[in-house]
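User: structure tokens for this one?
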Amino acid sequence: MATMDYSTIHEEHYEAQCEHEMWLEDIEHWEGDHQQTEVMLEEVRAALRDHGVALRDHAETIKAHDVRAQLHEEELVDFERGGNPPDPDHAEPGGLHREFQHRHEGTRQAHQRIKEHHDMIMAAVHRLYKDLKSAM
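Assistant:
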């Protein structure tokens, strides 16, 4: 029967105990990270809800703009047929149309900003989801 080297066993136990302490310190650090991440995810959820509201608001803005465009078109047709100017403040339809163009350009720029923001958000969330799924 082989003789046991108790000093080696004691050293292995000590090394294991040191590792356990290190691992527990790691876990304590990770738990802090985890809590911070949960707070950040709550903020992300709130931002996503806000983004959803912004999308619905933007859709309503576009619908209202479309109604104004249709009215503008109808007023222009009426004016071409000899009717009154569409707006007393604009003796000629060109002024009203420039106002329409200005609003339309503003809506176009807002739409582009929202699209870029939306694409960035979706890419980040999808990337995070994919990374988490592949790590499991």
